[in-house]
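Reopening: Phosphoribosylformylglycinamidine cyclo-ligase still failing for me.
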Amino acid sequence: MTSEPQTPITYASAGVDVEAGDKAVELMKESVRRATRPEVVGGLGGFAGMFDASAIARMTRPILATSTDGVGTKVAIAQALDKHDTIGFDLVGMVVDDIVVCGAEPLFMTDYIATGKVVPERIAAIVGGIARACEEAGVALVGGETAEHPGLLEPDEYDVAGAATGVVEYAHVLGPQRVRDGDVVVAFASSGLHSNGFSLVRRVIESAGWTLDRHVDEFGRTLGEELLEPTRLYTKPLLSLIADAGVEMHALSHVTGGGLAANLARVLPTGMFARIDRASWAPPAVFQTIQALGRVPQTDLERTLNQGVGFVGVLPEAHAERAIELSELSGIRAWRLGEVTAEERATIAADAEVTRGAKGVDGGAVQVVGQHPKA
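Support: Ran it again with your exact input. Result attached.
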């Protein structure tokens, strides 16, 4: 037999506050309204976000592209600092810019937040950041969900995820099929750590005994401020670059989990070899600091962090200078990173690792050689 509870058990007493969820929606409404496009049908609060796809019907062979992701353990930094208005840029960057890799224009996005306790102001700050990032990227935020999970997550804990959809004309799809012998690799600078490798970063600073409020002269700000620097959004600059008549882009790669070599290898065809020269750039101070603090081996560091390179493009040598110029005009530093050759003709250094394909992709080969210049 079971005993009767002394007092009635309600959803609220079980830890879920529906009224707090409603208040959070009210607080986020204005920021979400700005993250829109003319094609959006309906408003906030529907069971599904709706998007008018009439323009797609006029394309010759429209290819839909979709992506989903989160921001990993970077949320732990936001929670520790009680600063939640930038993590949305990390989410949008991780999701939307993956779609740009194939040359697609991202159209709309949805988000999902799971938390131990809905604090309306905190949820509104997170969604406000997502909305501002969508606005900057030209993507409509058409819906989302906030779920309260008491007992599974602590009251101050949360995680975020999102999904987006874009479209590209089939004839304009970028990827390994376009890459040619003699192409060059152009780097587009990151804004910092972005949203990958934070399990390593957090372990290093914990081991070193550093606190997030520690001022670091090399950063010109506190450690926490440096770690929470939002992921750079490449969407509009790269779409403009791709559309430029003076740039024939063959492939793009978003440098996220796995690092530079692995992500570049994913967009090269088998039989092609890319040689990347470390001497072409100096990683920003945060990467050097993490490596020194944790005595992190070079190979492990490069497999985990972006090292200052957030995106790479593969294109004909004759078009590289124009691509770099356009990127610089958009505010993103760019430089020539390396070259692509047929592997059968490539000079492969015997003392450096060769990365072949990644994440299930039977792609090309990449070797990173040389040493970074001293700061």
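The chain has two domains: 15-36+60-172, 176-369. If you still see a failure, please send the error message rather than a screenshot.
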